[in-house]
Here is the input.
Amino acid sequence: MMKRLIVGSLSLLLISTVGASVVRAESSAYNPAVSGKTPSYVGITPFNLVNLAYQGQLQDQGIPSYQDLISAYQAKQISAEDIVRSAVQSKKLPSQLLSDKAYLNAVKTQLDSFRTTQNY
Here is the structure.
């Protein structure tokens, strides 16, 4: 029961977060992170990027969605770099982020949080 509640809450959070940020991100430019803050491409933070992937917005680039994304990440079939590369290919992110260690690490942290929620 608790697991369903957590997964349902996560899904609702993902849905509500992604909608507004996708619209903003398309007309935005690269904004390097300031020390101590979460790195972001204006409108697409690492959290938003993982949510986009989770919702299936990177499927055309080969990134699975929903539970398949979580399973593939846990099985090490995809990585944070794969997700960022897919977002670059779909023109959601600038190519500079492929070498931005802070952004890549923040995406990895967001993906790792799926492991935490799956343990409940």
Notes: DSSP finds five helices and two strands in the chain. The longest strand covers residues 30-31. Residues 2-118 form one domain.
